[in-house]
Automatic annotation (TrEMBL):
Keywords: Hydrolase, Membrane, Transmembrane, Transmembrane helix. The chain crosses the membrane at residues 38-56, 62-78, 99-124, 130-153, 165-184, 190-210, 222-239, 259-282. It is an enzyme of class 3 (hydrolase). This is CPBP family intramembrane glutamic endopeptidase. Residues 1-28 are annotated as: Disordered. It comes from Streptomyces eurythermus. Residues 134-226 form the CAAX prenyl protease 2/Lysostaphin resistance protein A-like domain. It comes from the Bacteria. Its EC number is 3.4.-.-. InterPro entries: Rce1/LyrA-like_dom (IPR003675).
Length: 294
């Protein structure tokens, strides 16, 4: 992990280049706009979003190849448009961070599902699909989803917005947009958007502020989605082949109904508690950016 000073410097982005031969002088007003936090955020969102849109539902390893391409686009935008380094995607320690995030994501889903099952909300039966085919498909799709969504929401949006308004405002805004972005999924409602914003958007934002590492939040996101899919629970309204078939019983408040686990009350409570803990750890580590004075 980076030291506190490094985290502040990298999260804060590049300083203005006001010299007569600097990039602002060469690029003029348009260059300054593009290199502003909102400018490079939008540039990156378009670039990574296009890659994700073209590869997310592709066959076999296409989603993973799309994730690799999305990381490359992210790096190009950050280095050549935002003019900042990218310690959050460093290869050194990436595996360790991904495994740590994955362990937290796996534990979060298993505890949530176990509690709902104990209250009679879920029951499971073996689906009988081919084991390797189901696992391979789930892993490929969810790697692509986790990496590209984390680059979009935490790598680009959160880091750009915290330069403008500080970490606290950035985590709230990106959390809200994360919930809104899931309104278009099957079975979505106002409650599911609030639930996603709270348990996922805010928690993943707090996780990024704590570790300042894309691989950590992508690992958490990947383990969460993959575990749900393999258990046969809809992932944000999307139902795919899993190793098990999940039968839902009782109130949608307990089970999440057709939308899946994310709309259940138990993971919302657990997610908010985790988010608070991670945010406190980020603050203690000096990894939060204050709001910039006018």
């Amino acid at each position: 992990m980076s030291t506190t000073s490094t985290a502040r410097q990298d999260a804060g982005g590049p300083g203005p280049d006001t010299g007569p031969d600097g990039p602002d002088a060469r690029g003029g007003r348009l260059g300054r706009i593009v290199r502003s936090p909102l400018g490079w955020m939008l540039t990156g969102l378009i670039g990574v979003g296009v890659v994700s849109g073209l590869t997310a539902t592709g066959p076999g390893p296409v989603p993973v190849l799309g994730a690799v391409a999305a990381v490359a686009v992210y790096w190009l935008v950050m280095r050549h448009v935002a003019r900042r380094s990218t310690p959050e995607t460093a290869r050194r320690g990436a595996g360790r961070e991904a495994l740590l995030g994955g362990a937290i994501g796996l534990g979060f889903v298993l505890v949530s599902v176990s509690l709902i099952t104990a209250f009679g909300g879920y029951s499971f039966s073996w689906a009988g699909h081919g084991f390797m085919a189901v696992v391979w498909s789930a892993v490929m799709v969810q790697i692509g989803t986790a990496v590209t969504e984390e680059l979009l929401f935490r790598g680009l949006a959160l880091q750009a917005l915290e330069q403008l308004w500080g970490s606290r405002a950035a985590i709230v805004i990106t959390g809200l947009f994360f919930g809104i972005a899931h309104l278009g999924t099957p079975g979505a409602s106002a409650w599911s958007a609030v639930a996603i914003a709270s348990e996922a958007g805010v928690m993943l934002g707090a996780a990024f502020l704590w570790r300042r590492n894309i691989w950590f939040v992508a690992g958490l996101h990947f383990a969460w989605n993959t575990t749900e899919q393999l258990l046969g629970i809809p992932v944000s309204g999307h139902t795919s082949e899993g190793l098990f078939t999940a039968d839902v019983h009782g109130s949608a408040v307990l089970t999440g109904g057709g939308f899946g686990l994310e709309a259940a009350l138990v993971p919302v409570v657990l997610g908010v508690l985790l988010a608070v803990r991670m945010f406190v750890l980020a603050r203690r580590g000096g990894r939060l950016l204050p709001r910039r004075s006018a």
